[in-house]
Design goal:
The structure holds two protein chains of two kinds. Chain A is of the alpha/beta class. Chain A has a single domain, classed as Rossmann fold, CATH 3.40.50. Chain A has helices at 14-24, 67-77, 87-95, 151-159, 214-228; strands spanning 2-7, 27-32, 44-47, 81-85, 101-103, 111-119, 135-142, 146-148, 163-168, 187-191, 197-200. The relative contact order of chain A is 0.19. By secondary structure, chain B is α+β, with helices and mostly antiparallel strands. Helices cover 35% and strands 24% of the residues of chain B. Chain B is built from 27 helices and 28 strands. In chain B, a hairpin with a 2-residue loop joins strand 12 and strand 13. The N and C termini of chain B lie far apart (54 Å). The chains are: A alpha/beta, B alpha+beta. The interface between A and B is medium-sized, with 32 and 32 residues.
């Protein structure tokens, strides 16, 4: 199974994702933001964390206009698996592939620490095999990770199983103290309606060997999902991954 | 005649910080009057910051040799061999003055500067540390400085993508008008691909890469070489503005160009910008340079040669390549949206020639620029040095244990550094093991393939001890930093230093400087740890009053086995607590003494370097045993503070701790004394015999002094009776919140 990690100018978690995906069992390519290759041979595309274009204008706003993002949109429309981590999540929200936006942390400070995440929806390609309600420990590192979305959209997302992870305490309860950035409804990670495009602020690639290993579970789930989909995408497809 | 070519006068020279003697020296050696642009070159290169004219002689004392040393002092950074063709480049630098004037940008560009020093050597930066000394919170600018500095360091490091993994933060009134911001960076490189700042190869092309040149920071080096006055805020235009995004691009482009063999020599345009990089690169290679200033990319119009030469605009590098590689080099930088502009070439001879608008504006012999007349700096011990050692022990003996305990736990130093640590990305790169709050940070180098190598990093200095005895302060900075990495399981292998002092024109400061270097040297020699890089920051005075001497030490240790790291907190409520090292430490110079008497006082214990060596051996031997232990170095605030920290950071709910005062002990010296080495160890009770054996073999003291329990309290007992009881809950919330208001 092949995966690709895209490097934008200012990406700084690209290496970490390459290593984490390789450990999971993917064969990993690196792509440059100005490349416009066919993405059909990949089972997974990852937009990594960092400060693409120095966060100029808004986090992810300029990267969303990079040449490769057009190809990613087509790939996503064809049902391909796309994951955005941290800045990658911000980029996916800017492109409109994911609902909502990421605003400045409520504390106005950058925050780097381990957080607890509750798995809200176990059916997605990113959480398959992880029971709903499971509490994962994965670190965050961001200054603008407060998830913001209107109430109607949130309700629709919750009903459709699009809220994948919420911030919680060690026991899985959504206490105010367990929300590190003021995200609405404690949302930490979401997917699109078809489940194939996914974004989260916490860094699963940093929770694969040295700290908690919970992050590896997400990449394993994606690998399984890709396998179940019988290999790479060969062209536009109507039916989503699910 | 243009402003650049007008003849310089003594008045101009003095206005730019040169002395009359220096100006006369230049005129005599040149056998002519320098141009105004040339005067700019001399004013920057003869500044203390660039020339080390006051410190050079004393610095020769530092031991710099060792079997791992691939590059010692004198380059952009020092390099140690870590085996299998890999090396680590590291250095620590100060950015004190700019951080007071404009805390956010001052600290940010300090980080930017040290990062460039590391990657110009061919190393990818993989870890940063920050050592910060702030004034007291009630001083007028402190809260702006603390917040601004931490935001600035976080902003730059987080965006660039280097994890800030450890550091030290302290507060003292001597830093009220002159905070210290010392930034450390370590990078990883292949030993067959080390780059140096040399302009080698006649006919080779000199290339300017990175951001464009503006008027910011003109005279930064000169600013860093004089004392502060209260109106220093007027100097704000001399502080540079940093852009970590451009620096990230510069890193990637430069490493890519290096990997493709497109670079012969390279140097950061740091302090004194183009001037220092061009003269130093030529000086190291023994070549001459020809530079056409018209080709410098600028972001402001109408800049003079003088400004182009002295601008300290950030994120710029000067490099040398062969003429055939200019085009491929430009292609690499263009890929990363950066300029690479040929601006000159390497020529035969010993001069640097610079032209601007068709006119020669600089024509100077390199050795004259690089070797100012050495400054004669007399050194005299402060007349009150011995009075500083007076300490009224009787007054302390009368006070209750509770009162002493409270003075420690109510002090500003009794604080969880998390409000700072949380604002730094400590994990990017995914090498960081542990919490960022331990005695030392540990990085796992997955880059080395199957060989399991980890590095431990720590920074340490105690200005209080340094003021009372600079030699002991120097010794102790090395000793504490070595212990910090050793309690994490590492063998210390190299040191970088950042020597922060007052004005070298003050003989008492010069004495402190020489004494501190002596202390560092003694400790490094005894432990066989070379000093491979460093930085001197003089003129840390405000209105004539110097800071406490602060020779900050950055220590690198290596772990080459695969065993798990020792803990640093209480991991169970059924552990025994032991003290490794002497039972008592001196009260002289201790944190308690300074809190009690509201000033530093007493004579600090002299660190016995042979005992220290044995303690380090013991820690290495301990590592070969299958023992689950937690270790914590005892330093500021003595055993009480160390034991509290182990309990307050414990993840076990309701944990408690009991410390028993051994019968034969002086209570203050046992609980609050500060001697080196003293280490607190927590272990399963069954392992006591083995620990007694190991410490006995190593020839170092060991005593069982307490245990963890489920009481939720910190208890001190003496002869079976309770001497002090404090609930850990309220202590923890005070500890956790102590610094929040200052940094968040």
């Amino acid at each position: 199974m092949k995966a690709a990690v895209i490097t934008f100018p200012g990406s700084n978690c690209d290496d970490d994702n390459v290593h984490a995906l390789a450990r999971t069992g993917f064969e990993v390519d690196r792509l440059w933001h100005r490349d416009t290759p066919g993405l059909g041979s990949y089972a997974l595309i990852v937009l990594p964390g960092g400060f693409s274009f120095g966060d100029t204008l808004r986090c992810g706003a300029i990267a969303a206009l990079s040449p490769i993002v057009g190809a990613v949109k087509e790939y996503a429309a064809a049902g391909g698996l796309v994951a955005g981590i941290c800045n990658g999540f911000q980029i996916l929200c800017e492109t409109g592939l994911l609902p909502g936006a990421l605003a400045r942390n409520e504390s106005l400070n950058f925050v780097c620490q381990d957080v607890h995440l509750k798995v809200e929806s176990a059916g997605s390609p990113w959480t398959r095999g992880i029971a709903s309600g499971t509490v994962l420990t994965i670190p965050i590192a961001h200054g603008e990770g407060r998830y913001v979305v209107d109430e109607a959209t949130h309700e629709k997302m919750a009903r459709g199983g699009q809220i994948l992870f919420t911030y919680c305490d060690a026991r899985g309860a959504a206490s105010p103290g367990s929300n590190p950035n003021g995200s609405m409804w404690n949302v930490a990670g979401v997917c699109n309606e078809t489940g194939n495009v996914f974004g989260m602020m916490p860094h699963p690639e940093r929770a694969t060997d040295l700290r908690s290993r919970d992050g590896a579970k997400l990449w394993r789930a994606a690998l399984e999902a890709a396998r179940a989909h019988k290999g790479p995408l060969t062209g536009p497809e109507k039916d989503g991954i699910r | 005649m243009t402003p650049d070519t007008q003849p310089a006068t003594l008045e101009m020279a003095r206005a730019l910080g040169l002395t009359r003697e220096e100006f006369e020296y230049v005129r005599r050696k040149l056998e002519r009057v320098p141009t105004f642009a040339e005067l700019g070159v001399f004013s920057a290169m003869y500044s203390e910051h660039c020339s080390y004219k006051s410190s050079r002689k004393a610095l020769r004392r530092l031991p710099t040799k060792g079997k791992r040393v691939l590059q010692g002092p004198g380059e952009n950074a020092g390099i140690l061999d870590i085996g299998d063709g890999w090396g680590v480049a590291f250095k620590m630098e100060s950015h004190n003055h700019p951080s007071y004037i404009e805390p956010f940008q001052g600290a940010a560009t300090g980080v930017g500067g040290i990062l460039r020093d590391i990657f110009t050597m061919g190393a990818r930066p993989i870890a940063a540390m920050d050592a910060l000394c702030f004034g007291m919170p009630e001083a007028p600018r402190t809260s702006a400085v603390t917040r601004g500095v931490v935001h600035g360091i976080g902003h730059y490091g987080n965006c660039f993508g280097v994890p800030t993994v450890a550091g030290q933060t302290l507060f003292h009134a001597c830093f009220n008008g002159n905070p210290l911001v010392n930034a450390f960076t370590l990078g990883l490189l292949r030993t067959d691909r080390i780059f140096r700042g040399k302009a080698e190869g006649l006919g080779n092309t000199l290339v300017y890469v990175g951001a464009k040149t503006g008027r910011d920071g003109v005279h930064g080096a000169t600013m860093a070489s004089k004392e502060f006055s209260s109106d220093s805020e007027l100097e704000r235009p001399a502080v540079q503005v940093g852009d970590p995004f451009t620096e990230k691009l510069l890193l990637e482009a430069t490493l890519e160009a290096m990997g493709q063999g497109l670079i012969v020599g390279i140097q950061d345009m740091g302090a004194a910008g183009l001037t220092s990089s061009s003269f130093e690169m030529a000086g190291r290679a023994g070549t001459g340079l020809e530079v056409d200033l018209d080709h410098i990319p600028t972001r402001e119009s109408g800049m003079t040669a003088y400004e182009l030469l002295l601008s300290e605009s950030q994120e710029r590098m000067l490099l040398v390549t062969t003429p055939d590689k200019v085009a491929p080099l430009q292609a690499v930088y263009e890929k990363w949206d950066l300029h690479a502009e040929p601006i000159g070439r390497v020529i035969e001879g010993t001069r640097v020639l610079m032209t601007f608008h068709g006119e020669t504006v600089v024509d100077l012999p390199i050795d004259l620029v690089l070797s100012p007349p050495p400054a004669e700096r007399p050194a005299v011990a402060p007349s009150d040095q011995r009075q500083r050692w007076f300490l009224d022990r009787n007054k302390m003996l009368q006070a209750s244990l509770q009162a002493k305990f409270s003075s420690l736990t109510e002090a500003l130093s009794f604080a969880d550094p998390s409000p700072i640590v949380r604002q730094y990305d400590s994990m990017v790169g995914n090498r960081t093991e542990g919490s960022g709050l331990d005695d030392a940070a540990v990085l796992r180098l997955r880059d080395l393939g199957s060989r399991n190598v980890r590095l431990a990093l720590s920074t340490d200095c105690n200005p209080r001890i340094c003021w009372l005895s600079p030699r002991e302060g120097g010794r102790r900075a090395v000793a504490e930093a070595a212990l910090n990495v050793a309690v994490r399981g590492a063998v210390p292998i190299g040191v970088t230093d950042c020597l922060n002092f007052g004005s070298p024109e003050n003989p008492e400061v010069m004495w402190q400087f020489e004494e501190a270097i002596e202390g560092i040297s003694e400790a490094c020699e005894a432990l066989q740890i070379p000093v491979v890089s460093g930085n001197v920051s003089f003129y840390n005075d405000t209105d004539g009053k110097p800071i406490h001497p602060t020779p900050m030490v950055g220590m690198v240790g290596i772990i080459e086995d695969e065993r798990p790291l020792p803990g640093s907190v209480l991991s169970s409520s059924e552990l025994e607590l032991g003290l490794v090292g002497p039972l008592e430490g001196g009260i002289g110079g201790s944190l308690l003494a300074s809190l009690w008497f509201q000033r530093e006082c007493g004579q600090p214990d002299e660190t016995d370097l042979s005992v220290l060596g044995r303690a380090l051996k013991f820690l290495q031997r301990l590592r070969t045993r299958k023992m689950v232990v937690a270790l914590h170095d005892i330093s500021d605030g003595g055993l009480v503070t160390a034991a509290l920290e182990m309990a307050l950071r414990s993840p076990i709910p309701g944990i408690g701790i009991e410390v028993r005062i051994p019968r034969e002990c002086d209570v203050d010296q046992f609980l609050f004394g500060e001697a080196v080495p003293r280490i607190l160890i927590a272990y399963e009770p069954v392992e006591r015999t083995e620990l007694e054996g190991l410490t006995g073999q190593a020839g170092i003291g060991f005593a069982v002094i307490g245990q963890s329990n489920e009481s939720g309290e910190f208890r001190i007992t003496q002869g079976g009776a309770a001497a002090l009881k404090a609930e850990l809950g309220p202590l923890r919330s005070r500890w956790e919140n102590r610094w929040r208001g200052l940094f968040e």
